[in-house]
Amino acid sequence: MNPPPGKLILFCGTNRGEARDCVDWAVDALCQGLDSPNLRILAGLEEPLQTFEVKDYALKAMKELEMELLQGDAAISAYAYDVIHEIIEDPKKMKSNLKTLCELCIAEDYQKDIYDFYTLRWAYDDLEEQEVQYYWEGADRSNIQEVVLKRCQDWITEYKNRT
């Protein structure tokens, strides 16, 4: 699977992310019919990748493609959108994606809009090991997946209303 645009935004708008994801995104974008000089250069970069070089071409490609560059918390939220959307699309990824969101929340000093996924991760983990959890009111073994999916759907709606 090709990295979602959120990974591109994360890499370009923060000090996080992987250069390889940007190159993979560029290849996918070309295959989908997008085209620009810097997108072609970005898609052609090979290992070992240099972060500054990848970021430079990625930013230029985004500008050529008239993509908005989000920075800071907004870039984190754009990446979180893709991770959360993936939970909705493939609930089998719930545990791993909750872990990703939790780690991102911690790394970003408990960014407010993704904090619920920090607590949901711990509730989910506790319920795998024991009968009770104290992180999310009303969540138990019988409904934790539905609780997570509902919060994901609500978060996606809230995000779309903010942007």
Structure notes:
There is one protein chain. This protein is mostly helical. It folds into two domains: 60 residues, no CATH class; 80 residues, no CATH class. It is 67% helix and 0% strand. The protein is elongated, with a radius of gyration of 17 Å. It starts with a helix and ends with a helix.
Features:
mainly alpha, 8 helices
pLDDT average, as an integer? 96
Structural class: mainly alpha
Secondary-structure element series: HHHHHHHH
Counting structural domains, the number is 2
Kindly report how far apart the N and C termini lie.
26 Å
Count all strands and give the number.
0
Shape: elongated
Strand count, sense and barrel status of the largest sheet are: none
Which regions contain 5 or more consecutive residues with pLDDT less than 50? none
Helix segment tally: 8
Short synopsis of the structure:
By secondary structure, the chain is mostly helical. Helix content is 67%, strand content 0%.
Topology of this structure?
Blueprint: H1 5-13, H2 19-31, H3 37-44, H4 51-64, H5 73-89, H6 94-107, H7 115-129, H8 144-162
Helix pairs in contact: 1-2, 1-5, 2-3, 2-4, 3-4, 5-6, 5-8, 6-7, 7-8
